[in-house]
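Supplementary Methods. Inverse-folding protocol.

Structures were first reduced to a C-alpha cell string of length 588. This string, shown here, constituted the complete conditioning input.
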C-alpha cells in the first residue's frame, strides 16, 4: 500500500511540473500580437468586452450585432478571466493557456496508463512543441478548450474500458462531452463517441457500450446543453434556429454544392490531401515521423505474440491510439470545410504515437531497423541544424545583431547534435523539444524584426489615435492585409475596402473616402499607387510608412548573393514590403 501511495504522489508531482512548465512556455508574450496571432481572436475579445460593458452575458454581440457563432461557454470563461485579470489581451488568451496545460496533463495521464511513464513524459514534451498546439495555446479562440474536453472525455472512456469505477467515469465522460459541446459544438460529441464505438466494435466488447450507459448519458448532455439554447431560441426565434441548423451544422458537416458523386469523391480526396499537408507543416518537425510511427504501431499490434496480460494491454493501447488518430482525420475530411486547425484535436494521439516511435527498443536486425535508428537520430539533428540556421538568420539579418552570434549558434548546434547521438533513445527527441521550447519562447523577436506585422500596425494605430481632429474612419485597402489584424488596436470597427479584384477594390476605396470626411487607410505602397490612379482623389496623402514581412516574396539569385555577402539591406529588400498609412486631407 505505501508503494501505491508513493507512485501516486510521484505521478501527481510530475503532472504539477508538466502543468507549470506549460504555463511558463505558453504565457510568454501573451499580451502582444505576434507570430501566434489568429484572425478570429478579435471576435472573442471584442464580444466578451461588450458583454462586460453591456452586462449582456447570455447573447454575444460583435460591434453591437448579434454573434451566433459557437455556444456560450468559451465567452463566459474569458469574461471570468477578465474579472480576475482585467479586460486585456493577456486575460483573454490566458484561458487557452490553462486549457493547453490541462491538455498536457491529461495526455500524460493517458500515456502513462496505456504505456509507461517515459512515454508519458516524452509525449507531453512533444505535444508542447507541436506548432499548431503552441499557437492555439496562446490564442483567444475556443479550439484549445474544445481539445481539452475531447481529450478528457477519451481519458474517462479509457477508464470505463478498463472497468475502473465505470459508473462514475461514464458520468464524467458525458459531462466532458457536454462541456465541450458548449465550447464549440458537435465535434465534442462525435469524436469521443467514434473512439468508443469503433474500439468496442473492433475488440468485440459490446459490454463497453452497456457500461457507458448512453441513456443516462443523453440526459446528462441535455441538462448541460439545453438551457442556454432554449434561451437563445426564445430570444432570437427562427433567425437563430436557421443559423444553427444550416450554417453551423448542415453546411459544415456535408458538402451540398453538388450531388455529383465524382465531385464528392474529388472533394474528399482534396481534403485528405489538405489535412495531410497540415500534419506535415503545422505539426512540423514531428509530423515527418508519422511515416515511421503509424506503420510501427500497426506492426506492433499484429506482431505482439501473447494475448494475455501486459502484452494484450499494449496491443489494445496501440489500437486505441490509431482509432483516435484516424477517427479525427476521417471525420474532418468528410466535412465540407478545409480548416487547418481542425487537426488540433488529434494532437494527443499524434504525440503519443510519435513518442512510442522514438522509445521502441527493436530487437530484430535488418536494413529497415537500421534505417529507423538512423532516422530517429540524424533527422532530428538535421531539423535542429535548419532551426539554428533560421534563428541565426533572424538575429543577424533581420534584427541587425553582430555576426558573432552566428558562431554562438553554431556552437549551440554542435552541443545539441552531440547530445542527440547518445545511445539512450529519449535524448534526441528531448533535445529537439527543448530547442523548440527555446525558439518559441523568443517569439517576441519576430515582432521586433517585423517578421510579424503587428509592431508596425501598432505604430500606425498610434498615429491614427493621436490625430487631433478626433474620431476618424479607418479602413484596410489591400487584400493581403487582413482588417482583423488591424482591428485589435481600435474600439471602432475597421472597414475592409479591398478584395482580389483591382477594379472592385478601386470602387470600394472611392466609396470609403467619399463617405467619410475624416479617414485613414492602410495599404501596401504598390496598392496605393494603383488605387490613386483608379480613385483619383487628390486629397489623399501618405502620413506614415513602415516595412513588414512580405506575404508574397520573389526570391532569385540576388537574394542568395546578398546572403553570402552578409548584405543586410539587400536581404531585407527581398523579404520586406513597404506599407503606407494614407489620410484624406482636404487641404492637400
Amino acid at each position: 500500500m505505501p508503494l501505491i501511495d508513493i507512485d501516486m504522489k510521484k505521478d501527481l508531482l510530475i503532472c504539477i511540473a508538466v502543468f507549470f512548465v506549460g504555463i511558463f512556455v505558453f504565457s510568454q508574450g501573451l499580451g502582444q500580437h505576434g507570430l501566434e496571432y489568429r484572425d478570429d481572436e478579435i471576435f472573442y475579445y471584442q464580444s466578451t468586452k461588450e458583454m462586460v460593458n453591456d452586462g449582456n452575458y447570455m447573447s454575444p454581440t460583435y460591434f453591437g450585432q448579434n454573434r451566433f457563432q459557437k455556444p456560450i461557454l468559451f465567452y463566459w470563461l474569458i469574461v471570468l478571466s477578465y474579472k480576475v485579470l482585467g479586460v486585456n489581451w493577456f486575460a483573454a488568451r490566458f484561458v487557452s493557456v490553462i486549457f493547453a496545460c490541462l491538455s498536457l496533463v491529461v495526455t500524460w495521464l493517458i500515456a502513462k496508463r496505456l504505456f509507461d511513464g517515459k512515454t508519458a513524459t516524452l509525449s507531453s514534451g512533444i505535444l508542447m512543441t507541436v506548432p499548431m498546439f503552441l499557437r492555439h495555446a496562446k490564442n483567444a479562440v475556443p479550439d484549445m478548450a474544445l481539445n481539452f474536453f475531447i481529450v478528457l472525455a477519451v481519458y474517462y472512456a479509457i477508464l470505463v474500458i478498463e472497468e475502473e469505477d465505470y459508473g462514475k467515469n461514464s458520468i464524467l465522460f458525458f459531462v466532458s462531452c457536454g462541456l465541450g459541446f458548449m465550447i464549440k459544438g458537435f465535434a465534442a460529441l462525435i469524436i469521443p463517441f467514434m473512439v468508443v464505438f469503433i474500439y468496442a466494435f473492433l475488440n468485440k466488447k459490446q459490454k463497453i457500450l452497456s457500461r457507458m450507459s448512453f441513456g443516462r448519458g443523453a440526459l446528462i448532455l441535455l441538462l448541460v446543453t439545453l438551457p442556454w439554447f432554449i434561451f437563445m431560441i426564445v430570444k432570437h426565434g427562427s433567425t437563430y434556429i436557421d443559423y444553427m441548423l444550416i450554417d453551423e451544422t448542415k453546411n459544415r458537416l456535408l458538402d451540398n454544392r453538388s450531388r455529383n458523386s465524382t465531385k464528392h469523391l474529388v472533394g474528399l480526396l482534396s481534403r485528405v490531401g489538405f489535412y495531410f499537408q497540415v500534419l506535415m507543416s503545422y505539426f512540423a518537425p514531428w509530423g515527418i515521423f508519422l511515416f515511421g510511427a503509424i506503420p510501427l504501431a500497426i506492426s506492433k499490434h499484429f506482431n505482439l505474440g501473447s494475448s494475455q496480460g501486459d502484452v494484450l494491454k499494449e496491443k489494445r493501447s496501440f489500437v486505441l491510439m490509431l482509432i483516435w488518430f484516424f477517427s479525427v482525420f476521417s471525420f474532418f475530411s468528410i466535412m465540407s470545410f478545409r480548416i487547418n486547425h481542425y487537426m488540433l484535436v488529434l494532437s494527443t494521439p499524434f504525440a503519443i504515437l510519435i513518442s512510442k516511435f522514438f522509445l521502441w527498443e527493436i530487437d530484430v536486425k535488418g536494413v529497415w531497423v537500421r534505417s529507423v535508428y538512423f532516422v530517429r537520430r540524424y533527422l532530428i539533428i538535421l531539423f535542429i541544424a535548419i532551426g539554428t540556421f533560421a534563428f541565426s538568420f533572424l538575429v543577424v539579418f533581420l534584427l541587425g545583431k553582430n555576426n558573432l552570434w552566428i558562431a554562438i549558434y553554431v556552437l549551440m548546434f554542435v552541443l545539441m547534435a552531440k547530445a542527440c547521438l547518445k545511445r539512450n533513445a529519449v535524448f534526441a527527441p528531448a533535445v529537439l523539444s527543448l530547442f523548440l521550447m527555446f525558439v518559441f519562447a523568443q517569439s517576441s523577436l519576430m515582432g521586433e524584426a517585423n517578421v510579424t506585422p503587428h509592431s508596425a500596425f501598432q505604430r500606425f494605430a498610434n498615429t491614427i489615435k493621436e490625430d487631433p481632429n478626433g474620431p476618424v474612419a479607418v479602413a484596410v485597402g489591400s487584400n493581403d492585409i487582413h482588417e482583423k489584424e488591424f482591428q485589435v488596436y481600435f474600439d471602432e470597427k475597421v472597414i475592409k475596402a479591398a478584395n482580389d479584384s483591382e477594379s472592385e477594390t478601386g470602387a470600394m476605396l472611392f466609396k470609403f473616402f467619399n463617405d467619410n470626411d475624416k479617414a485613414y487607410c492602410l495599404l501596401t505602397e504598390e496598392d496605393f499607387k494603383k488605387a490613386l490612379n483608379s480613385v483619383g482623389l487628390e486629397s489623399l496623402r501618405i502620413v506614415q510608412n513602415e516595412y513588414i514581412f512580405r506575404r508574397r516574396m520573389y526570391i532569385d539569385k540576388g537574394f542568395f548573393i546578398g546572403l553570402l555577402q552578409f548584405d543586410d539591406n539587400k536581404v531585407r529588400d527581398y523579404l520586406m514590403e513597404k506599407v503606407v498609412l494614407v489620410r484624406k486631407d482636404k487641404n492637400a
